[in-house]
Design a protein that fits this description.
By secondary structure, the protein is of the alpha/beta class. 40% of the residues lie in helices and 14% in strands. It has helices at residues 15-31, 46-50, 75-80, 91-96, 101-114, 132-139, 141-144, 168-182, 199-203, 220-235; strands at residues 4-8, 36-40, 57-58, 85-88, 117-122, 151-154, 188-191, 210-213. Bound molecules: 1,3-dihydroxyacetonephosphate. 1,3-dihydroxyacetonephosphate binds next to strand 8.
Length: 239
């Protein structure tokens, strides 16, 4: 499977900078065919990104079917804007917006009804590190009964936005647990302070199939380097 490099812009960038960045990403994409590239912008830039890239992700989706839910964005709306993938269970949604397993299950159901592929996120907090296996096993429950294609992102909460990535070996040991639960065909991304400096060693791990990049995806230079490293590694030029 090709490595997948996904940019999670979170709640960043204005329209001008989002437009410039996605154009730059498209230029690089035209030179790199051995890496899958995906961008997760804010909802208000989804159509813009979808007009440039063929793989576009939503950072969130409503748990409800269309109707009187002021401020919400339904899976159908996302689909009509060209969205192909959506994050579900990101730690910021779990912790800041108190999304429970029940809510995540409803979101998965909405996505499935329109054929958007979820990227289901799991990851332990610092306090949970000594029991990471049981935390991850518990968090995976909503996706285990999902009977359509999906991707997993392992993002240790203590590594997100801290500059302190997991070591490749530690990440691999969790990816191996996840793979044993979801089966061999499912792609598993690593996320949490991924940069051009640590990506290569992460990609060398057998169960790390790509990266979900936050901060380092917001600047053309760093994201371009990340894409080039993934491409060269895939070519066998960086072993
Ligand atoms: P950072 O790369 O900024 O640590 O963010 C990771 C993340 O949360 C991606 O979804």
């Amino acid at each position: 499977m090709k490595p997948l490099i996904a940019a999670n812009w979170k709640m960043n960038l204005d329209l001008t900078s989002a437009t410039q960045l996605v154009r730059q990403i498209n230029l690089i994409k035209n030179e790199i065919s051995n890496v899958d590239i995906m961008v997760f912008p804010s909802h208000c830039y989804l159509s813009l990104v979808a007009s440039v890239l063929n793989q576009v992700g939503a950072q969130n989706v409503s748990e409800y079917a269309p109707g009187a839910y002021t401020g919400e964005v339904s899976a159908e709306m996302l689909k009509s804007c060209g969205v192909t993938h959506a994050l579900v269970g990101h730690s910021e949604r779990r912790h800041i917006f108190f999304e429970t397993d029940d809510i995540l299950t409803k979101k998965l159901y909405q996505l499935k009804s329109v054929g958007i592929v979820p990227i289901f996120c799991v990851g332990e907090t610092l306090d949970q590190r000594n029991r990471v296996e049981s935390v991850i096993q518990h968090q995976l429950q909503p996706i285990l009964s999902f009977d359509a294609p999906y991707i997993i992102a392992y993002e240790p909460v203590w590594a997100i936005g801290t500059g302190q990535s997991s070591t490749p070996e530690d990440a691999q040991s969790v990816h191996e647990i996840i793979q044993s639960m979801v089966g061999p065909g499912v792609q598993i991304l690593y996320g949490g302070s991924v940069t051009e400096s640590n990506l290569l060693n992460l990609l060398k791990m057998p169960n790390i199939h790509g990266a979900l990049v936050g901060g380092a995806s917001l600047k053309t230079e760093s994201f371009t380097s990340i894409l080039n490293i993934a491409s060269k590694y895939e070519q066998g030029a960086l072993i």
